[in-house]
Each structure stands twice: as structure tokens, then as C-alpha cells.
Fold this protein.
Amino acid sequence: MLSVRIIPCLDVKAGRVVKGLQFEQLRDVGDPVEAARAYQEQGADELVFLDITASSDGRNIMHEVVERTASEIFMPLTVGGGLRSVEDIRAMLNAGADKVSLNTAAIQNPDLVLQAAKKFGNQCIVVAIDARREPGTDSWRVYTHGGRNRTDLDVLDWAKRVVELGAGEILLTSMDCDGMQSGYDIELTRRVSEAASVPVIASGGAGNLDHLVDVVRDGKASAVLAASIFHFGTYTIRQAKEKLRDAGMPVRL
Amino acid sequence: MEQSCAKKTRVALIDYGMGNLRSVARALEKSGGAVRLVCDPREVTDADRALVFPGQGAIVDCMDCLKRTEFATLIREWIAADRPFFGVCLGLQALFEHSEEGNCAGLGIFPGQVRRFAPMEENGRALKIPHMGWNTAVFRQKGPLLENLRPEGEDFYFVHSYYVDAVASEMVLCETCYGENFVSGIQRGRCIATQFHPEKSQAKGLQLYQNFLHLAEN
């Protein structure tokens, strides 16, 4: 059976991991390549680098980070942040990323998803959706710019649309739950997972391992993304997988 | 894993311009290969012990490229001579007669069809397409290719929406279950091809490449 994937996400700024990993064995907590290697050793299933560099000259540094990472680790690597054009995507894939994640650029220019999927294949185009619940309702709105800007898009409509455009995967972040450590937005994840024919990665809200179980079992997520619970050494990837396995879910151990 | 003192196996890696081959090249190097990217079949020589074909993109573009560059002829002759060959993903699918993707003829080296996964359910959930992530390949053959790999199965990384169907049973190297069993790898002599990506499959993937390179040396 296909395993549930556990995906750590690293925020990278100007070539350095923001809030470095608090693992004892690391010599340089800010080096993304070392972090990637540590996660490979722990048995992470994939890795996400989110480039939060504000300026565009940070892009070349990111290419170099991705090149070094792809030369050393043998697992899928997704890179997101600041990719605006087919050329940006091509450069990142050529640097060694297996997939790219598009967020604001996909909303501003949906044709980018279509063109990129045609050129590079659906499997390497991830569309990241930042969702926030409309207060007092059972619907969610798409936000951009890290949850600051509200759009006119309904999350379920947008999820279906990006699949039609050629997204091979959806990275779904609940802006309500992100950083709260009180669990994923199960209802949101379930709705999107049922609406989209492609895999959905749940993100935002993991505080303990039961939260992972909940979002896979009840939220029907294909994969779970988490940052702080792994970076701070609260739990290892292996502990997370054992928890899922004990709850009857297929994992790679 | 890395062979420091042993002789490196010369590998020609087919680069038909569809994507980045860095991780395949690095994985083969780490597994004991001396890897050279080849963009033209005329660059492949008798000194190359193994030919590796990591297919990427859409199969229609892939087949166009293979024909235009005459890699199609090279691959046919190479496999007919039982020289060591490893195909990955589309590099598996392209060996067969026909693909539903774009209604496209393959190289036709082996009988078999490439089909899209049908909508299916498993445990009350619709299976997602593409089949993306880690799944178990259960080996149906034995031999040096599977050294240090458990016959009952190892997990490898998959990402695909099409699979090979109606493969002759004696060629089946391994099977994987996604809704139902499909052929996730083939072997005939020294021609090996997998639907999964060894270069994305951490230690077990490198082990498979290393075993292949040993096979290629002998």
C-alpha cells in the first residue's frame, strides 16, 4: 500500500535555515544541506524548502542550496517561494528540485500552472493554497502573502481549478491553525481531499503526533507537512511514523 | 555504499533534454558508477558497460526525442545484445508496444501496454492519481540484482499516472499494490527497468543501483 508521507518543511532565507534545527548532531544548525541530511537519516519521506528571501538576488543563493542538497540527498525535494515564471521554474528544476510549489503566482496567473504542467509534467507542479475560514461559515477563502491578503477565491473551487490546470499535488495550509500547535484543520483538509483528485498535503497546526493521525484518518490527507515539532526535536520522524502505524496507517519505516 | 578503491563501472546516461539528471547521475556515482551524460547515441562506445535511461516528461515527447536522436535504435540494439540497461519511470514504459498516454507507440521491445490508473477506491477512499509517494515493491525474482534487498518487499518512491500492463510473467521483477497489483519493475537478462525512482529512494534505491552496476561488470 501507498505510505502516508511525512514531510518536514524548512524555511530558508538567503541560503540559511530560519529557526535552525535543534538536533544535537548538527555542526551548523543553519545549513539547509545539513538539515536535509539529518532528515534523510531520520527517514523523512520528502523535504520542502520554502524560500522566504524577500529580494530577488536571493534566488541565486537558493539555486546553489538546491544544487548542493540534490547532490547529497536521495529523496524528493520540493522548493517554493518567489517562483513567478516558467523560466523561474525551469531554473529551479534544473538546480535539482523535483517539484516546485506555486502559491501567489498561481493566483495572479493561473496560466502559469497550465504552462508549467505542460512543459515539466503535472508531477512536478505543486500548488500551495493558504486557506482561512470565513468567520461564522462553513467555507474557506484563499489568502496570499502569508495569509495577509484575502482573495475572492473559494478554497474548494480553487482546489478543483488548479487540478484542471495541471497541478499534481496540493499543499494545503490552514492559516487559522498555522503556528497554533493545536491540530490541523480537519474539516478543511477533508473537504479539499474529497474535492481534488490529486494528493493533498496537510499543513498548519501540528503540535503533537495525535494531530498527524487525526488529519490523515479524518482529514483524508495523503501526506502531512510539519516544521516546528520536528525542528525543535520534540518528536523524531520515526516517532511520528510509529504513531501512524500504531493507528493502522501505512508508513515507511 | 560508495566504492572508493573498487573499479568504477562506466555508465552512459541518456540525456534527451527533458529534465534534470543530476540526482540520477549522483545516485549512480554513489553506487559505484563513473557516469557520463550522452546527448547523442554516437557518443556511446564499447567502453560503456551500462546504459541508463531515466525517462521524464510526457511519453509522446520522449518517443519523439528517442526517434529523432536515434537513441531508439541504440536502445533496441543494446537490449537485443543483452548489454546492461536500466530504465527508470518512462524508461520502463517506453520499452513496451503502446501507451494510452497520448495514444502513443512505444519502442515495442517487449509486448505489453501502458495504461492509465482507473479510478479506484481503497478502504473507502478514492485513490489519488498520480500515484505519488513510497510504496512497496514485492520481488518476484531472485538473483544478484536483489542482493541485500528483502524479497518480501522494499519501499521505493513512485510518481506516475500510467503503468505497464500485460507484461509477460517471466519478465516481472516486482509488483506493487495501488488499488490492485501492477508491475513495478521488469528484468530480462541484463535489461532492467523500474517504474519507481531508485535515485529518490534513499538507501534501498542506491542498493539497487549498486547491484545493477555489479551485474554490469560481470
